[in-house]
Amino acid sequence: METNPQDGSLLERPVEQRKAPPRDGRPQSIKASRDSQEGGLYAERVKVYPKAVSGPFRTLKWAILVLCLAVYYTVPWVRWDRGPGAPNQAILIDLAAPRAYFFGIEIWPQEVYYITGLLVLGAVGLFLVTSLAGRVWCGYTCPQTVWTDLFMAVERWIEGDRGARIRLDNQPLNREKLLRKTAKHAAWLAISLATGGAWVLYFDDAPTALKALLTGHATMREYFFVGLFTTTTYVLAGWAREQVCTYMCPWPRFQSSMLDVHSLVVTYEAWRGERRGPHKAGTSWEGRGDCIDCGQCIAVCPTGIDIRDGQQLECIGCGLCIDSCNEIMTKVGRPPNLIRFDTLANQETKAGGQANRYRLLRPRVVIYTLVLAIVAGVMLTALETRATMGISVLRDRAPLYVTLSDGSLRNGYTIKVINKRRGESAFQLGVVGQPGATLVVQDVGEAHGSDGVTLPVHGDAVATFRVFVSLPRQSMTRDGGAQGSIPLVFSLTEQGPAPARPTFYEGVFMGPGAKP
Predict the structure, then answer these.
(1) Residue 481 neighbours by CB under 8 Å, 6+ apart
(2) In terms of C-beta density within 10 A (0-12 exposed, 13-18 middle, 19 or more buried), how is residue 401 classed?
């Protein structure tokens, strides 16, 4: 990976791979294995057999995995009291209502822009984290990584570690192989089914939905989505694995634009490790590097790459190669962190014998932070100040207007009033700026001039009213001439002990000469 001289970002460049066959059974990276294949436009997939490893980064990955899975599977069962008649599930996307509930926040369909805000926050937050610490999202919290880690743990438990799995795959089909493979895939399918079932629980009351699923009383839509997410989990985490990160996920393709030489990434200290080669106990380290070319960093990599080849789009930044290399360095008596989280700028200074230098505040970091703060501030302000009521007006298209017996003109409207409060509320509907207007709400009442009609609306509901507005014919005259249409402003005010701010909706009133 090279540095862009214009903005300091990192540019992906192909890396020369060693094409020699693996020596002494040492693991070989998937790139080197593909290079050794002869001919053909497309190379066959080289199956990756990640080896188990222990260390700080592996422990951190286990902790995050447990936390992510616990959140995913248990959140639908968390309760939240919203009052009588309201769903008590803490996080619920109720498509029938339709509403989205997030603890004390209730999102209506008209407020879908909050979802857009969350997506923007997630994207900018990912940009910020990547610019600071590389692909830690991919290595630790991405759903593909979490479920793949879980599937690999089950695979090791049933089939054994790397060597045992390779031998099992290479041996002919026998009773042991059949039993182990069957047990593994059965466990994978059970996890996938639990994953698909848990996803459906986010869209319906969890206890009710689970009972319906188990007793066969759920809808075909629910069974379809359980099957869909069961299949995708099984295929992506069980079979595709690193192929998703390498070929299907778009993030590696443009992650280099988020990185620069001051971003923390998994790096190999080539200045210290080269010249690499096998090392025997008791021999001198003079004239050679600390890397003994054992290949353990390749063996533990979930995507099967060789981190010593430099920055690669397949690297998910999990740090397991660091744990593996430190274990080897301890055994051979060399300093740890031959592979480490570091910046490329630091590697250059270390190679020159200078002190480390870290630059946390950089233009891209500042920009991402400011954008994140601005979007978060806008969303919080919008949540705090959002109205508890709303109005929408749809004018009748036919007839455009009606002439009454006294010569006045009448238009018909369908008005929807939204009451976002839990309790029933009364709203006053009026017409602004037309003293001669007559407002008639079908089955409710009539008002003249600046007076309004009181509309009762149930809590957490949308009420629909048929409204007729009449205006004197002279109201259609402006600047000495007749107008085919004029603006008509409706006002909606929530009634209560405290004065409320009205909501306005600007519609249109049609008269003679108006075009449909």
Answers:
(1) none
(2) buried
Those residues whose C-beta lies under 8 Å from the C-beta of residue 319, and which sit 6 or more positions away, are 57, 60, 139, 266, 341
Burial 153-187 (b: 16+ CB within 10 A, else e): ebbbebbeebeebeebeeeeeeeeeeebeeebeeb
Other beta carbons within 10 angstroms of residue 423's beta carbon come to 10
Structure tokens at 204: 């319906």
User: How distant, in Å, are the alpha carbons of 130, 255, 333, 444 from that of 134?
Assistant: 4, 8, 30, 63
Cα separation of 371 and 506, whole Å?
Answer: 33
> How would you classify residue 456: left for phi > 0, otherwise alpha for psi between -120 and 50, otherwise beta?
beta
Amino acid at 47: K
Tell me how far apart the alpha carbons of residues 244 and 138 are, in angstroms, rounded to a whole number.
Answer: 11
Residue reference for tokens 């700080």: 56
All structural domains of the chain, each given as residue ranges with its CATH number in brackets, are 389-510 (2.60.40.10)
Q: Which residue has the tokens 């848990």?
A: 198
Beta bridge partners of 461: 419
Residue recorded with tokens 């390749």: 298
Sign (positive or negative) of CA dihedral 131, 134, 140, 144: positive
Q: Which residue has the tokens 């709203």?
A: 427
- Cα 9 from chain centre: 25
The count of residues in the chain is: 516
Extract the tokens encoding 338. Answer: 């031959």
Confidence of residue 20 (pLDDT cuts 50, 70, 90): very low
Exposed (0-12), middle (13-18) or buried (19+): which is 324, by Cβ within 10 Å?
buried
Nearest CA to 478 out of 470, 487, 469, 490 is that of 487
Of 421, 414, 423, the closest CA to residue 442 belongs to: 414
Secondary element (H or E) of residue 477 = strand 477-478
For the chain, the farthest-separated pair of C-alpha atoms sits apart, in whole angstroms, at: 114
Which string of DSSP letters, residue by residue, matches 383-395?
Answer: HHH--SEEEEEEE
Residue carrying the six token digits 């270390």:
350
CA angle 396, 397, 400 (to 5 degrees): 90
The string of pLDDT tens digits covering residues 312-366 is: 989 999 999 999 999 999 999 999 999 999 999 999 998 888 877 788 889 999 9
How is residue 439 written in tokens? 């407002």
CA distance 106 to 116: 15
Return phi, psi of residue 415, to 5°. -115, 130
For the stretch 113-144, pLDDT in tens is: 899 999 999 999 999 999 999 999 999 999 99
Chain CA centroid to CA 205, Å: 23
Token representation of residue 354: 């200078």
Q: What is the pTM of this model?
A: 0.84
Angstrom distance (rounded) from CA 376 to CA 86: 28
Residue 44, pLDDT above cutoff 50: yes
Sign of the dihedral defined by the CA atoms of residues 177, 183, 188, 189, in that order: positive
